Amino acid sequence: MNRKRRELVRCLALVSQLGITMLTPVALCVMLGVWLDGRFSTYFTLPLLILGILAGARSAYLMAKKVIQPDDGDEENGDD
């Protein structure tokens, strides 16, 4: 039971971390776009939103990839 609970907590932490990793660049880019639009009367919000989505997706992908495929340098195998 204790092992299942640890695994559940680990999975929930990973999902939360992925969500925050995805949300942060999107929110920052939108806030920057809104500020630039108000300051200079331009239309930066949509391009920055797309940039934020791409940056967040890349960061989430790299994080998930690291969790799924642990570093091969930790294992010692006899193949040289």
Provide an overview of this structure.
With 80 residues, this protein is mostly helical. The chain is built from two helices and no strands. The longest helix is centred in the first third of the chain and has 39 residues. The mean pLDDT is 88.
Structural class: mainly alpha
Q: Which spans of ≥5 residues are poorly predicted at pLDDT below 50? A: none
**Terminus-to-terminus distance:** 41 Å
**N-to-C SSE string, H for helix and E for strand:** HH
Structure summary, number of beta strands? 0
Output the radius of gyration.
Answer: 19 Å
Descriptive labels:
single chain; 80 residues; mainly alpha; 2 helices
Topology:
Blueprint: H1 2-40, H2 45-68
Helix pairs in contact: 1-2
